[in-house]
Amino acid sequence: MKIGIVGAGLSGLVAGRKLALAGHDVTVIEKNRELGGKLATTELGGMTADYGYSHFEVSRSSFARFVDELREEGLARTWAQDFALHDGTQYHGVNPNVHASNWFAAPRGMNAIARYLARWVDVKSAEKVGGMTFIGSHRSRKRAWMLNLTDISVFECDAVILAAPAPEAYGVLQTAQDETPARRIIRHIDDIRYKPAYALLVHAEAPPPTWRGITCDGEMLRWIGNEGSKRTSAEDGESNAGALLMLHSSARFARTHVHADPEEVTRRMLDRASEITGLSLHEPRETRLHFWKYFQPLNPLKEYFMELEMEEAPLALVGDYFMGSSLEDAFLSGEKLAEYWISRYSEHKQAAPLS
Known about the structure:
Elements lengths: L1 E5 L3 H12 L3 E6 L10 E4 L2 E4 L10 H12 L4 E4 L3 E3 L4 E2 L10 E3 L5 H7 L4 E4 L3 E6 L10 E5 L4 E4 L1 E4 L3 H8 L9 H7 L4 E11 L8 E4 L4 E6 L1 H4 L11 E7 L1 H6 L5 H16 L8 E12 L8 E3 L6 E3 L9 H18 L11
Parallel strand pairs: 1-2, 1-13, 2-9, 6-15, 13-20
Antiparallel strand pairs: 3-4, 5-8, 6-7, 10-11, 11-12, 14-17, 14-18, 15-16, 16-17, 19-20
Helix pairs in contact: 1-9
């Protein structure tokens, strides 16, 4: 099949790679120039920093195999066994509310994982899908679907995977609801709600801290990460490079300050982070602020994916709003759909071994 995937986040890229290895012709269409969605990485002060997913843990065997593959490629490594906690009033060196675990990080940045997965698929970046048209089985055209791109061009394919956040998938899917039995899916995804978040990267004069990260239980911040510690060990850290920190706001702060002056948002987050960490962050070398509108789903669906049951024109939805909200959940959503389609459309080639 010729498969079009809308969205180049982890779910879409995982599904795309697995289906491509099974012999399908896969193209991923991404509205941004950079791939990965919340596998988002940038540079600040000459250092690499993640401003979406910061780290992840492993609980399922299939995800563990994927992480082992990433480790062999130098794209993941064990980062921490636990994190500190600030409960709103007091700092604790270890979070007593969370069990000890192996937390992983990406030494080259999370976006390197997205670029690695994209090696197996064709990618159309900076291309937005504005709608879709169902051609149907009784058609003169070769393909069942037309994806309508906002530059007025179209992409024809046999099957579609919507791997965008639920509200964006809803917007695309509703354009085809009069031609397909899509209303059942639309009703479900219309109920998905998200927590927004501000992500503030900070490069400061302060020496790099010894802690890896601080979970914050407060009205303004929810996470402070020591990004520099992902790239080098604590023993050989470059103290003269300064501290590179990632601050994630609480959903409440993001909602109430969504239209606020970015400089005011930055100042308030820096002031609070200074109070929590004891570091002087009031006059940083450089900062970068990003607003995540769809940062974390509040009410994920209790299934790995959803499918529009039209055998002549397959269409499915995947993402981190299925079964949970973690990086592992996003991976499993894409993998489970790909496995299902490979078994269902058995006339196609079986999966090839990874190179």
